[in-house]
Amino acid sequence: RAVTGSLVLPVRTKKRHFRCSVLSDITWCSETVRMASRRVALKALDWVAFAERVPPNQRGMFNALKSRSDAIAAKLTSLPETATVIDWSFYRGAVAQAGMVDEFEKKFSALLIPEPVDTQTSTINAQEAESGKSASAYVEGSKARIAQYETELNKFKNMIPFDQMTIEDLNDTFPETKLDKSLTIDESISSVAVDGPSL
User: Fold this and answer.
1) Same domain, yes or no, for 88 and 172?
2) How many C-beta atoms lie closer than 10 Å to residue 91's C-beta?
3) Keyword annotations for this protein (predicted)?
4) 96 band by pLDDT with thresholds 50, 70 and 90
5) pLDDT tens, 132-148?
6) Quick one: which of 31, 83, 123, 166 is 20 to 30 A from 192 by CA?
7) Euclidean distance between CA atoms 196 and 190, whole angstroms
8) 174 is in which domain, residue-wise?
9) Conformation bin of residue 167: beta by default, left when phi > 0, alpha when psi is -120 to 50
10) For 35-163, where are the alpha helices, taking DSSP H only?
11) What does each C-alpha distance from 76 to 15, 39, 115 come to in angstroms?
12) What digits encode the pLDDT tens for the residues 53-68?
């Protein structure tokens, strides 16, 4: 049976009886038009390659994202390519209130659902560019650190073994081991001569 306002009308299909209304038909058809007739070619995601880049502590969020994406894709593919045609003449014969179906048909024909405006792609692209810059800077810094560490490693490979070093060799190889790095011998003698010996 079909329900229109307070009026209940019989509607028979080949398979079963069901309850519907002109309003629900319009709502359903407009939803179908919105989802199916504006269908765009979606980029296929390589989920395997994506999963390889996900750290273990974010695996749950990745699985939730994939499940949600699969559910949306399944819902989208289940919708027909074209909207179901409403049999307006049937409703004109079934609805007692004159002009009601014509008004619905006029409103449905004028219904235009705009395609959503993409407001996030530019932000994502900017974030990607910024991430690329920071990643490049990190790579360059890492290369500089590697060169520094290789220089230090070569110094350690080529230095005199510790058991053969004198104090002077140790201080030359590792300047930070000098007892007083801030004063030379001449400076320490002149400071004693000016200030006098400390008591």
Assistant:
1) no
2) 21
3) CF(0), Hydrogen ion transport, Ion transport, Membrane, Mitochondrion, Mitochondrion inner membrane, Transport
4) confident
5) 999 999 999 999 999 99
6) 166
7) 10
8) 159-199
9) alpha
10) 47-52, 59-78, 88-94, 100-110, 121-158
11) 25, 8, 15
12) 999 999 999 999 999 9
Q: What is the DSSP-derived secondary structure letter of residue 44?
A: P
Q: CB count, 10 Å around CB of 90?
A: 13
Whether residues 85 and 73 share a domain: the answer is no
Report the domain count for the chain. 4
Radius of gyration of the chain (CA): 40
Distances (CA, A) of 66 to 43, 46, 70: 14, 11, 6
3-state SS assignment for residue 4 = strand
Question: Count of CB atoms within 10 A of residue 186's CB?
Answer: 8
113 neighbors 33 (Cβ within 8 angstroms): yes
Please indicate, yes or no, whether residues 176 and 198 belong to a single structural domain of this protein: yes
> Is the whole-model pTM more than 0.70?
no
Question: Quick count: other Cβ atoms within 10 Å of Cβ 95?
Answer: 19
Which residue, chain included where needed, has tokens 């800077």?
137
CA dist 25 and 31 (Å) reads 10
